[in-house]
Amino acid sequence: MVIAAFWGIIAGSALLIGAVTGIYSKISKRLTGLIMAFGTGALIAAASFELLSEALKESSIFNVALFFILGALIFTIGDFAVIKFGGKERKRSKEGNSGSQGLAIFFGTILDAIPESVIIGALIAKDASMNIVLISSIFISNFPEGLSSSIGLKKGKFSDKKILTLWSSVILLSAIFSIVGYLVMDKVSDNIFAGLSAFAAGAIIAMVSSTMMPEAFEEGGPAVGLFASLGLLTALILTTL
């Protein structure tokens, strides 16, 4: 359980690192977009190679497909709710986030973190080891999220202290959700674990498609396709180590 919390914190800490970078240094939007594209490719690889492929070893294609679609659907419903309350720009560095938008951005980031953190804990419960591909992919994708969102919040007159407090609390919640994933998955059968892995994969794919991909292209331009491919390839290479 402690190990699950530790790796949840490590994966989520990239949000705070990105926030500090966005607040105290200048980094171009293009570079931010390219980093996000790389993270997008890495997350897609992790969802495909580490979650879906492993789930298929323990369950039927029907069960995996059902839970995959369900994960994507539930994330999408949550995303609609976050957008309705002003969290659409949570991965963007655009001007002017009001107080209510800032809270929506905060809750939207938590929505993004839930499937990632839960599956970290779940995988550790099942094999008692770190999943380097998934954790590396989440870490890489969290950095530009913290960076872009913090720049936007700063433009919206949020204080540095408040921004850093928000991201620190997300890291704490990442640890908590990792523990939840560990405690729940430690008791379930391989078939149920496979379904929940597929569920997390669907949520992750929905997340990168609705939030990360549009932001990456908007900031980085056509080169993001290459960087997303490099991110996927890097994750694939890590699976062979």
Automatic annotation (TrEMBL):
<protein>
    <recommendedName>
        <fullName>ZIP family metal transporter</fullName>
    </recommendedName>
</protein>
<keyword id="KW-0812">Transmembrane</keyword>
<feature type="transmembrane region" description="Helical">
    <location>
        <begin position="220"/>
        <end position="238"/>
    </location>
</feature>
<feature type="transmembrane region" description="Helical">
    <location>
        <begin position="191"/>
        <end position="208"/>
    </location>
</feature>
<feature type="transmembrane region" description="Helical">
    <location>
        <begin position="31"/>
        <end position="49"/>
    </location>
</feature>
<feature type="transmembrane region" description="Helical">
    <location>
        <begin position="131"/>
        <end position="151"/>
    </location>
</feature>
<keyword id="KW-0472">Membrane</keyword>
<feature type="transmembrane region" description="Helical">
    <location>
        <begin position="61"/>
        <end position="82"/>
    </location>
</feature>
<keyword id="KW-1133">Transmembrane helix</keyword>
<feature type="transmembrane region" description="Helical">
    <location>
        <begin position="6"/>
        <end position="24"/>
    </location>
</feature>
<feature type="transmembrane region" description="Helical">
    <location>
        <begin position="103"/>
        <end position="125"/>
    </location>
</feature>
<feature type="transmembrane region" description="Helical">
    <location>
        <begin position="163"/>
        <end position="185"/>
    </location>
</feature>
